[in-house]
Amino acid sequence: MSELQEKEAQCNPREEEENEFSDLSENSENLQNDTEIVEMMTSRTSKFWLIAPIFIAFVLYFALFELKIIEFLGF
Torsion angle, CA of 43/49/54/57, rounded to 10 degrees? Predict the structure, then answer.
């Protein structure tokens, strides 16, 4: 039975090529999804590092000067 299948595969290589192309298309779809995820994550982190220093500066200013914590610290 396996000899028959091998002979059919030799006579009909088109099926193997179609399988290879379907594997390639699946791989390209997975790669595209991965790149979209990476782009989304990098845009999120860049937004975070843009906003975080401003937020930290505001919190420090408010805590130290508006709440007069700096007086309690002895400065």
Answer: 160
